[in-house]
């Protein structure tokens, strides 16, 4: 049967040009018919009648694989005239107002809505059709508005195209826009043969240029990405040369586990969704299920369904290969976060939003696709410039080369800045006033929840419950990009970590200093998890610090917490692992960071050949160190005790490479910035022998690093 695509939108938006260019591009691999609805509208008052005629005489027969026989409307005579015939084809494109109306929507494989501002549409329509349209514009436009009020086709479209710039005044090239639409159609998994024009758009050759010049990461990020609307900085701030030590941190980083910390701190990655290959994807829960929206240039595609199958479609199989001498696992691809609430796809339930909050304000997942990026190698003290050649919607090789040249010039400029100076950067204190935080649970309330968790454990419903709460604050004004960067600079100095990160998605940002790897994959399929359970604060003196570390090492309770999560992860990884490949090379080792000591273990496994990487990730999600064990029953206990969604907190941050590799950290010690609102999730693992008072103290210790970066204190 034919694949039916509608290109809809109000008059003058640019539908005809787009549909014609789209048909031409698709003919490279398929037979294509293009039908224009303006040929059958019965006069200036005939929009509604024309839509009905279109369904009966055109859409229904073609959808069944039969030829459509219809009559052309003669606008000069005011009547239907010659009989016409449209033959079936592999792909049929319907273009015109109402081509994706409710009357035909069930017949379509894809609906494209083209939008532009009213004045621009009027200007373009009259320029196209001349004076004959002038006296009828308002009359026809009123019909379009009346139809749209009854049938909101724009909100039901699978793909939207924003052509809100005058095509005669520097708007995107129509051919480039068509390439974005083809890419969006590829996201919809249309029933077309492999190799069609929308398939495999993110395949290409990864090119790597090494610059043997070292730069200050903060300066480089500010210069390249400080003004980007959406950008990701995966920042190994615990690398020895990554930050200037904060004099307010009373005790410097210790040596326990230093080799392992530094091994995880070799690379930092910076990218945004700019350039011709850049994309942005977010997943949200909607009535009836989830929807992943993918934005490419002026085009947005909506893909209904669960998130992890979409992730599998864009990352589940290797799509590129890095040069053999390039040492980092990231070779372009997707970067961002997966929030805890995706647990509803992995055995958990939907968590209702807390009273007075807007559940739609934060996506469940947000990722940028980077077709170009910068990687800093802290060990070799060099910078890698990554670009992707091939399949570019516009600009081609010249765009990638121009950007690489810009990065080289920027690196040279930044490297010339004298050490210790930070020109044109916001101060580390930022211009944000010190916020006053409130904690969701009072001390007494939290202690009561700890005891309730212990009751669940004694009743046999769980072995370990990772209970959390949240601190919230408000700012007088939404922070700008410079404010967020200034705050993060303070955080990365105050609390450096191998998985520190700054993620900015418009008015929503995450600024974190996570020390914990959730799960990594290399290109060959080797998997590694490094759960953290067991925490002590750093001491004010060397003697006190050693005593706190010794107390952590000897704690039966903390070791039990860690070992239970190790056992959980061994089970999770074994479901997609080569039998016998699951090992634990490190158990309950101490790692010391700027503000805490931690117990860390390592679980390794090898992915079964042919197994889905996204499914292996989903089985282990959300991180067991943030739920407890057994995972599914414990998540239900947590939903009841906490009474609010965790959002990004307890989810994961990281990257998914074109090679099939990935590296994801746990979202902890991370400030969530949403317009004027600030949120910080904190918690700890509850076991049968937990001391409720000690659990409350652990919450305060874990909040210290982020709060101190803001100049704030834990609320009394």
From TrEMBL:
GO molecular function, one term: 4-amino-4-deoxychorismate synthase activity
UniProt cross-references to InterPro entries, sorted A to Z: ADC_synthase, Anth_synth_I-like, Chorismate_C, P-loop_NTPase
Signal peptide: none
Chorismate-utilising enzyme C-terminal domain location: 443-702
Gene Ontology biological process terms from the UniProt entry: 4-aminobenzoate biosynthetic process; L-tryptophan biosynthetic process
Bias kind Low complexity: ranges: 237-251
Region of interest (Disordered), residue spans: 237-256
Recorded GO CC terms: cytoplasm
Pfam families for the chain: Chorismate_bind
PANTHER family per the UniProt record, alphabetical: AMINOBENZOATE/ANTHRANILATE SYNTHASE (PTHR11236), AMINODEOXYCHORISMATE SYNTHASE (PTHR11236:SF18)
Protein name: Chorismate-binding protein
Organism in which the protein naturally occurs: Arthrobacter sunyaminii
